[in-house]
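Try this one yourself first.
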């Protein structure tokens, strides 16, 4: 009797330590036989001569809505004060705001100008921005934009990245 009790206790103890609720079956992959078919050997073709990649030419920058086009300066141009910013605009009452900033957002020069015609016509504008040249070359931006008459937020903008050249 004592032996039977020990066997029952051992079986209960063994089954209590095993969780039989989760069963994982991993299928054994079966090998797939393939027969190699002979392929025709391609004859070597002459290597084409590399074609020269044209150097990208900076283009005028256009605002997202198409109302402001800055033709000068072109992106990534190295500039000094006084800086000419010019282009075309078709904006409300021909009113444009401009500024020259550095990467920290400091305004080096700013002002207001008008295009030669207001929307829906397209007019031209030209600005001469005078600022103090930095002690060493830095990245800056020429920005031309409009503000919404409704809430004063920037409505349309062109931001031209520049290299502001060091003072001589």
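Now uncover the answer:
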């Amino acid at each position: 009797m004592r032996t039977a009790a020990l066997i029952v206790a051992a079986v209960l103890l063994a089954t209590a330590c095993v969780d039989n609720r989760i069963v994982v079956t991993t299928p054994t992959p079966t090998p797939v036989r393939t027969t190699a078919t002979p392929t025709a050997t391609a004859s070597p073709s002459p290597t084409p001569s590399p074609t020269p990649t044209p150097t990208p030419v900076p283009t005028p920058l256009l605002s997202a809505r198409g109302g402001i086009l800055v033709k000068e300066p072109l992106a990534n141009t190295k500039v000094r004060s006084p800086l000419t910013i010019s282009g075309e605009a078709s904006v409300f009452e021909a009113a444009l705001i401009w500024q020259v900033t550095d990467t920290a957002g400091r305004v080096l020069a700013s002002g207001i100008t008008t295009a030669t015609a207001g929307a829906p016509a397209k007019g031209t504008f030209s600005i001469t921005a005078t600022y103090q040249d930095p002690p060493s070359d830095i990245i800056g931006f020429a920005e031309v934009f409009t503000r919404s008459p409704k809430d004063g937020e920037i409505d349309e903008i062109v931001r031209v990245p520049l290299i502001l050249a060091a003072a001589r």
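Discussion: The beta strands are 61-62, 68-72, 77-79, 83-89, 95-102, 107-114, 123-129, 138-147, 154-164. The chain is about 10% helix and 35% strand.
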